[in-house]
Amino acid sequence: MKTTKRYGKKAESALGLWVKLARAYHTFARHTAADIRASGLTQPQFGALESLGHLGPMQIGELCRKQLVSGGNMTVVVDNLEKDGLVERVPHAEDRRAIIVRLTAKGKKVFEDSFPKHAQYVTKIASVLTEEEQAELSQLLKKLGTGLQ
User: Which listed CATH number (3.40.50.720, 3.40.50.12780, 1.10.10.10, 3.30.470.20) goes with 41-148?
Assistant: First the structure.
């Protein structure tokens, strides 16, 4: 039985949107995750390096908000990056209670070596859409995301 008969045309449209969005996300994520793994990093590690590389040093809480993860998860990610010599924790200049996370020289090199390659890969897999379609989809996804907040 078609969902239109059971739930109505609006519901069929919304459910179809959700299924297509979920499938596209999972496919895109699977491809990008494989590319990230090839750099020797986990996705959360890569995300943390990317945020620190583009935005500069920040507190763990801010890093959590940028990466949409919990504090406990990010602490483990930063611990592992620190063990690998890619980041360091330093005291905040004005707030003695706060700790800042920043890239080390080795972390900067890993970021500068890996991110441009990853950006090229994402560009390649996104090329199934024209640049105009990518811009339109980005705008629509932003509208959907902000409209739900």
Answer: 1.10.10.10
